[in-house]
Amino acid sequence: MLKFIFKRTLITIPTIFILILLVFFLVHVAPGNPFQGEKALSKEVMQQLIHQYRLDLPFWKQFVFYINDLLHGNLGSSYKFIGKSINDIIFPNNFGGFWVTLHLSIYAMILVIPLGILIGCYSGVYKSTIFDRFFFTFNIVFSSIPTIVTGPILVLVFSIILKLFPSSGIGDGSLQYFVLPISALVLAYMPTIAMVTRCSIIEVLSSNFIRTAKAKGLPLRIIIFRHAIKPTLIPVVALLGTTFSGILVGSIVTEQVFALPGLGILTTNAALNRDYALILGITILGSVITIFFNLLVDIIYFILDPRIKK
Length: 310
What we know:
The chain is mostly helical. Helices cover about 70% and strands about 0% of the residues.
């Protein structure tokens, strides 16, 4: 197992390097000067800023300096807020930036995975029932509706009409401000987990070893939790990496719908302000988190399915 983890970890290193190189290149070939704004700068000031941010160096030298900064935990400096570190913008001391996105993503994952597995298992065990038909309809509807549509509907129903939850903002950071954004993410990503679980448990329950367990007279509850649940979860675990990536990106979109001060607002402002350094930092951070989460999923998948050893 340690050999497997070591090999997977080694693979992530060149993957991250190529990713950083690609994102760095795309950001630097973007049109326009990051210091060109509404207020015109003098030629001397412009040259000083370009020199200060090493933009006058060849591309490969800029990249080497950037990699060196990353190895020391420095994401660079903002082009818009002169002298302010990207680290301070993304990871502020108060509750904002990455911390908001992280909370939103974790809360959503905590609900999406167990709810999807429970609903999928129940629907698969009792297939062709009224619940199963309702689940199919629910899955089709909410899988095709993005959070940018679901969010305003939730605000209309639960904030404006029923007045149960705040419609936007972060307030004091309490859980009530996260209820509607989390609900939008759960409605978008839980049906996929549930559908994969349903199909998986139906296939497992038709296996020979399950027929043998039934022939022995074992109760359905014992068959499911002792024999069927582990092989059922194998394709679900394989889906977790994609689900987390979707929730992370979906959180950025959802934050803008509910006006949460997370990475979504930072990304939009960075694009409008041509703050390419901030865009670069957010993109690399999100990508590296996704890669390491996929590594964790690979390890869990290895534990659940010993056939990977071969």
